[in-house]
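Bug report (template v2)

What were you trying to do?
Predict the complex of my protein with 4'-deoxy-4'-aminopyridoxal-5'-phosphate.

What happened?
Run completed; filing so the output is reviewed.

Input:
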Amino acid sequence: MKTLNLHKDVSFDVQKLREEFPILNQSVNGNPLVYLDNAATTQKPLSVINSIDNYYRTINSNVHRGLHTLSERATEAYEASREKIRDFINAGNTNEIVFVRGTTEGINLVAATFGRTSVNEGDEIIVTGMEHHSNLVPWQNLCREKNANLKFIPVSDEGELILDGFENMLSERTKLVSVVYVSNSLGTINPVKRIIETAHKYNVPVMIDAAQAVSHMKTDVRDLDCDFLAFSGHKIYGPTGIGILYGKENFLEKMPPYQFGGEMIKSVSYEKTVYNELPYKFEAGTPNISGSISIGAAIDFIKSSGYDNLYRHEQELLAYANEKFNSLGGIRIIGTAKEKTSVISFVLEGIHPYDTGTILDNLGIAVRTGFHCTQPLIEQRYKLPGTVRASFAVYNTKQEIDMLAEGLKKVKNMML
Ligand code: PMP
């Protein structure tokens, strides 16, 4: 198997870090894997893999049920992870941390509970023109059910939100603003704090889709003062099938349960049920225990890498990729916001993104092609059949970007 020595060109000790990610050390289609699809999902360090392994080897048991020792240990680890997450996003208390399947489920939970009980005919919900389908379709559906209206903050050609008219969109009819913190297809970091401040002037609560934010920058829910925030474990070097919904306690208290069954109850008779306290009211059924514990290991990984290092390294990669792409010619970058995370969406002029993606895959380079679950943004706003997206994580290197650039030259030679 061919392997790479990828560290020489970067200040961050990326080689040492890469050793913690066994999946990176492999060939794909006869070439060393260059994994640049991190906005879709990140790879997992050994500490996370070991945490999952260790859970099943040593303490697998159901939580909050048995009095026996294994169940107590599993419950302790599960709740310790909740506390770790609380601290990580600086929530006020663990009642505000709900384990869900991912960002999608977090948003659906808010739409199905807060949304169904507070949105009525003629009311309005505001999102942006760059939402992932997960932060669009649940609100579209709710508005359809309730005969309410969905409004959009427009997006500029550069991929920034046009906020001039935002304040005028807010009224007593507005029941929620739900905004993506970092765009998965453009990389734009949106000024969510400013959006929250403006919405709160009109007593409108704000939900933040932080799926693409948490792995790149410190996210502090109390500083932001957001009312809800959701993110996914698998995008922050943790496992799939686990995510977090943060909600301010006063909102969560008033919301009805999302699903019904075991765990979310305090007492049940044949006639009626008394629901459990927060956060268990929203955690019906046996949860993803190993995932909930291992997301804690992912948080430890991020903390030990340090947000400053991580951000600096990724920004260096982004700047380097921009430079490389500019010198390539015949390439159009979609999303040139001033504040961006390490995502580059682009199209090679005259070449369909799917062709680019297929040829790159043959070279062992994993990128994403298509709408990136933001079809309205790519198709209606930018009038494109899709883009190619390279997204960089903490373990990527400049040499990998060189390989991407070489790959793109080959694509052009083959297709043009
Ligand atoms: N929002 C954004 C901005 C995303 O990038 C994603 C995942 N691509 C989601 C929501 C949905 O996350 P998940 O599929 O983990 O629920």
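What did the reviewer find?
Residues 102-104, 132, 134-135, 180, 184, 209, 211-212, 232, 373 surround 4'-deoxy-4'-aminopyridoxal-5'-phosphate (CB under 6 Å). The CA atoms of residues 117 and 239 lie 32 Å apart.
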